[in-house]
Task: structure prediction
Amino acid sequence: MNRRLIDLSHEIEDGMVTYPGLPVPKIREWLSREASSARYAPGTTFQLGMIELLANTGTYIDAPSHRYAEGSDVAGYALEAVADLDGIVVHARGPGRAIDAEAFGEVQVRGKAVLVHTGWDRHWRTEHYGKGHPFLTAAAARHLVSAGAALIGIDSLNIDDDSDGTRPVHTVLLAAGIPIVEHLCGLDRLPDSAFRFFAAPPRVRGIGSFPVRAFALVGK
Result:
């Protein structure tokens, strides 16, 4: 099979909603091409853009400090924790919202990026995306930790039930130092296994979440 890259992340656009009620990104020019012409030689222009961005925008990764004051930030992730991981897809498109430990019972997750395919990304940028989304249960999170998963991703609004203020899945996974990637997309284009997963954030200090360009490398 020929090697190919599959993008698993949403584009970030000016004014788009990722999570209802949270600030939207503001993307604008700081220096236009017209204005830059006065700074450079004739015929030479540049554009400098500026973005005001909530860290939880688009497809993003959570680090332990997102949940825990003493936890490490996104800059604290070693590349080995967020890039070139052996990936698997777990399909969880049942009638119910809650995805329990049984969904992972027959899957070998040790050392792997476990990507939970719910199909919820089909509602992206619609009002339905923020209502009634699929989520993992606390029991599923505990199972994934004990089974040795390296990273957990989901193509849904939140890996937790957003009506549960205790956020048990974030609590369990981030306590174990397991990266969480939310708002993935396109997981239906991946094979169930035999691919490499990448979701590396910039090395930003003092912040517990940040957008990533999540993608998979398929084939040999």
